[in-house]
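Incident log, structure service

09:12 report received: a user says their structure output differs between two submissions of the same chain.
09:20 pulled the input from the user's history:
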Amino acid sequence: MTLEREELRDAWTVAMVDETAPATAPAGAIAGIPATVPGQVHTDLEREGLLADPTLDRNEDAAKWVGRADWTYSRTLDVDPRGHERVDLVCDGLDTVAELTLDGVQIGATRNMHRRYRFDLRDTTDGSNARTERDLEILFESPYREAGRVAARAGAMPGPYDEPFPYVRKMASNFGWDWGLTAVTSGPWRPIAIERWSTARLRDVRPLVDIEAGEGVLDAHIAFERSGLNDLDQDGEDDDLVLVVTVSGETEDGAKTRQRSRAQVTPKQDETVVTVRVPEVQRWWPRGYGEQPLYDVVVELQTVDGEVLDRQGFRTGFRSTRIDTAVDDIGRPFDVYVNGTRIDVRGVNWIPDDVIVSRVDRPRYESRLRAAADLNVNMVRVWGGGVYESHDFYEVCDELGLLVWQDFPFACSAYPEDEPLRSEVIAEARDNVARLSRHPSLVLWNGNNENIWLHDVDGWDRALGERGWGLDYYLDLLPTIVDAVDPSRFYTVASPWSGSESLFANDVDHETHHSWDVWNRLSDDHYRDSVPRFVSEFGWQAPPAWRTMRDAVSDEPMTPSSPGVVHHQKAASGMQKLADGLAPRFGLVPSDFDRWHYLTQLQQARAIATGVEHWRTHWPRNTGVIVWQLNDLWPVSSWSAIDSAGRLKPLAHELRRLYDDVLVAIRPVSSVRTVPAPDRTGGSDHPTASLPVADVAGSAPAGSSPIEVAVRSTRRGLDSVVRVRRVDLAGRVLAEETLPVHLDAAGVAVVTLPDAVGVVGDPTGELVVADMDWRRAVWTPAPDKDMRWEPAHYRAAFTPAADGDGLDLVVEAESLVRDLLLQPDRVQPGGTVDRGFMTLLPGERVAYRLHGVTEADIPRLTGTAVLWSLDRVLAD
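09:34 re-ran on a clean worker, output below:
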């Protein structure tokens, strides 16, 4: 009989355990309410009116009692085997410290949110009790109580937050972060099911893929479990079993193909490897480098007579990957190769998309990841303070060609290495490395986020003494597990990491680097101080879209300093750091929300552009940038490009330009000649080396140009021209040059500019514009506060979209228009636009596509703060 799975989604209730009820808890929570499974208790309390949404206003503090209470989920369970030999209770995810009982008898206990669990119910179905309806209860203890017990044994562990997340294997950012609220959850956050089966079942399937001489190779590592209850053969032994693996797909010309391999296993075996070879396989490529063909894989466990006992089906792709960190003449690179091609990594960091992570479903993943792909992203780093995401996340990445860098869940803290945590770390790592092995998008496992770096720069040794703090996990335990379970993936010790304990972890010349001095204490022009080999974190803050903040905060008036707005800022001195970014560039920190919102969005886009343009145009010294961060889990001022409501901030539109296959940038010549010497005394600056001068296309007297144009072509050579104009602030062209840009192959061309366009005569009254095809770069020689901006004049013409969905807008400039921004969400909640900040010269036009608005909205779409340019913001 084939294994049967029945998910238990209905008829659940949840109740707070009376004796654990905090004083602020509502009485209705004790009586019990209907529960959503999979789910977490916060959503049920909100639905029943027992909890105000903690993401709104300042409700967060009033909701913290939820994490201090114990919760019981219960329902009736049918344990009838229905003709099968075994009945198992399967829990794909329990958050977090749980005791499971059936009719009051304990059947299992858990202490790890990141693992799957299976409980054998055979003792309840042996015929001694004819009743098949049993009462299932899952008691979730407060994570704080478990963390307190572990902390009492392990001692205080240093870290940045006064919350006990290192002591419990749970999503760390539930306890709050510098972009997250505190909402400590409990509940069955992933599906719970009954599985009935006989003879044997598939326990684990790890399909490891590679390509050999144009042939796809799938090694299916298969483990299985026997029931122990089936009839024995005449010799008193179990029968042999048969494993069949089928791989189906298409050839390059569209013809169907199917390859199948089988293996017979004896009763003494509980695992084997079945290899399937796929001739003329179609390679899976990262986005922008080729297509993403996926093959259907079916693994069947059969009897020797062909009866199917269990079956798993999924899709995978064939590709070869490696990451090169071999020592070179600079230090150590961090070069990602797929199918032998070095990838120009253009990435984003991913955090949990909701503080109540069970609410994140496949449509949400689709929306966020497709948005990332539309921004020309090709790698997503799953950050270590969250979770191992569901298959839905990785399947979407497989389909879109988004490479996945996966952190193990260790972030920004010292972690105890003793029991009970050590065994949990081993179990969760083995479980998830195996679970995710099917996904071609996954190319990298990372041991931790910033722990080794912070250990060194923050002096954790003084607090730790001789106690373990996680280093053994990162240097020994985790790489051993990856090597044993999935040796096809690369493992790196940490992010950042320099490849050796003898080197400073955040050394710019070695492997991966986090650039956080910029934002925390330095202006964004300091991104140009060095060229790290691979930047795996950097970022600059801005608030969410206006509508997102307005929907979350009821302050009247809403200002940058009003209580709700300030509460929705979690970074240390975050509001001051935003102000510190605005004042030097714009000369003011507005007290009204509209101008503050515009300028902080512009500052975020400008800052990220400074870093990305500099690093990407120093290929191949730098081979990757991963911006912090793509998404948000609540409405908050943060480093995100897409806010928690899914609205694109102007940064997102800027990333589309910065991550294009061809990037045009204007930069100061001095930024590519030398970099500062290392400063190790403070532990947070970065050793560097002199940079080679890039090849020059075009000609000009040596040293004549304080600025130059750099063009990065990612995939192919170039034979084009760049049009460079020096203009005054009325938009009059003072000088113009058209210069050749030639690359025989993918790389960087540096165009030296003649003095006429490369030397600005009036730094406060001129700017430089470089255009290549539809791509544009703008250089402002002085801070905006010093520029003598003139009033922008333009015409805006709206027409209904041809497909009947939204409006088309054409803006025609009559003067210089600097940083024009349209925010239709201020008019309609569903209003969106396909562009961010735009700079136009007189006579130029730009077309916008708007959704979620109608002709009736046109009068408001040109109003103050809806369609706005920089000169007006600074003048108002």
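09:41 both user submissions now match this output. Likely a transient worker issue. Closing.
09:42 reviewer note: DSSP finds 19 helices and 45 strands in the chain. Confidence is low (pLDDT under 50) at residues 672-705.
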